[in-house]
Amino acid sequence: xxxARRSPLKPETGLDAVSEQxxxxxxxxxxxxxxxxxxxxxxxxxxxxxxxxxSGLSAARAEDIIQDTMLNxxxxxxxxxxxxxxxxxxxxxxxxxxxxxxxRRENRPLPEELKIEDQPAEDASQIVALEMExxxxxxxxxxxxxxxxxxxxxxxxxxLSHSDIQAETGLPLGTIKSRxxxxxxxxxxxxxxxxxx
Length: 197
What we know:
This protein is mainly alpha-helical. It contains eight helices and two strands; from the N terminus they run ββαααααααα. α1 (20-31) packs across α2, α2 (34-54) packs antiparallel against α3 and α3 (59-76) crosses α4.
């Protein structure tokens, strides 16, 4: 399974660096690149399955929703804008919405983490502040040592458990826990330093 990596984009895109998954999604959007879609499917399907099973779905039901989600990714790829979101957040949003649709159709209660509370629309200053915070986090992630960044991204962006990461990377559990702990400490330090400056 491909590891999450960040790759440079051509200058004309206006983006400094994006995840490999975002490059795949852009290839699907721009060229209907089937291999890039296969890469996306192979990367996201097991992560989405884990997320759906944790929410109480059966493996078979989870796989149905993953198929629908990835079909929507193919169909809606033309709407993807890497200036607004990385592929991971865009695809997870599609998956979450598809999951909610299925649960509502079946008249099942939504798991707590999927409920959407009625909130006033965010004003422009909140949106700008959130985007700035996201950029600070992305910048802080890029300053981590590569082996720490890879495991932090797998654990927190890919939502993999330590044992999932061990199965994927072959690293000892102690090494995984240590790298994630050190990476998170460094991230907290970087984010505090950014806030103070």
